[in-house]
Amino acid sequence: MNERVPQPALPTKQDEVAASGSELLGGPVGRRALLTATWWTPVRVIALVALGMFALGMVQKAPCYNGAWFVGASSQYTHACYSDIPHLYQGRGFADGLTPYFDKLPGDMEYLEYPVLTGLFMEVAAWLTPGSGSLQHQEKFYWMVNAGMLMACTVVIAVCVARTHRRRPWDALLVALAPAFALTATINWDLFAVALTAAAMLMWSRGRAVTFGILLGLATAAKLYPALLLGPLLVLCWRAGKWREFGSALIATTAAWLAVNLPVILRAPDGWAKFYSFSRERGVDFGSFWLILAQRMDDPPTTDTVNKLAMALMLLACLGVAALGFTAPRRPRFAQLAFLLVAAFILTNKVYSPQYVLWLVPLAALARPRWRDFLIWQACEVAYFLGIWMYLAYTTSGDAHKGLPTEGYQVVIAIHLLGTLYLCAVVVRDILMPERDVVRRNGEDDPSGGVLDGAPDVFVLGAAGQSPRYDGARDGEETYVKWGTPGKRSL
């Protein structure tokens, strides 16, 4: 007897905002459409939508590509099309053929201030950039090459998120359609690390702990934040008693990170260390609540003091996430705790660059796939995206003061902080009240949890573990739970 393959969960059947938005395309999918085989699978549709949104983001940068990067400092801000990529082509020695980490740079920076794998990404793009023509032509070509490589990363992210939750591929539309994703995708090279992290989470959802660790180690070699995912994984594996899987992931992560970094550490230790010394010595900068304090205090704290306070706040956040993981009535999903910890790092850090939102978008889609909450958060991030450029336009336009003054910029920082805190709050609510978690309404436990999915608890604190188990939904039905009372209802 052949088993029937469960149909994908449809947001238009579960989410009021998704259902309303679908009216633009003819309304929610009908029952007959579910039975019709078609080339337009969810993964393919999502990949194409992600490509389309990325292309729109490139179009948004057109004023800068057509000259605003070069005609004056304020022009690239008033058009909100700034990107680090063309400026660092010359500023970090790629135009002169210098080798990152090994060759010293002219000026105070001395060495490239990016992790090793991101430096390799930048160098590969430089190899593909023709050395002929004017410097401006080379910078524009360098941005275009990087945009093409980052577009490939975008497709990887969209596909990985779509496949991580087997029955909820359409949740990846949150990533594909995220406006802040499209606006910030080509500001810097963060998408490379995000793609590796999304691929790592896909591998963990398939129970491949070693492959997960290798990809997470590579992601950490491109950007530091992916290493934070080991914290939630430790808590969840501890609660489920999955020590062997966590150990395999940890060892593989460490080995992959060392394989990339050790050759540079041994041959160019000063260049390798620049990223870490720069992160430590960097003062309070854009986007953080520390900047609001520094701008409003007569005697702002020193960089060393802020480093210590930010580290203390992050440690408290880690303890809070761990306590939540051990005491929740039902073991949280991996994506939920991962989102909370990365969000905590963003909220407590002494700098928030607008492209850092890319770190959170895939995690948010997996942790809280509800369109209303996601769009509220995205609106806050778009407001910040516009606000920072208007503030920089104000500070670089001289006596003309075109743009957003300091007080206005502090308001958009607060909007960004509140938007992120709001999304954190609804994720915490889902953890404490698992019957409200839309992912679990179909009878699943943790679709992105791999070996954690459906595993019994072996270590809990307080009243944890007393939430009822969910029965799997039959075809055409959706499981729901009122506290302690499982039941079924028809779609």
TrEMBL record:
Organism: Streptomyces spectabilis
Record's keyword terms, sorted: Cell membrane, Membrane, Transferase, Transmembrane, Transmembrane helix
Lipid metabolism keyword on record: no
GO molecular function, one term: hexosyltransferase activity
Cell location: Cell membrane
Membrane topology annotation: Multi-pass membrane protein
Protein name: Putative membrane protein
Transmembrane segments: 39-59, 141-162, 174-204, 210-238, 309-328, 374-392, 412-432
Entry keyword Transferase: yes
Membership in a protein family: Belongs to the glycosyltransferase 87 family.
Cellular-component GO terms for this entry: plasma membrane
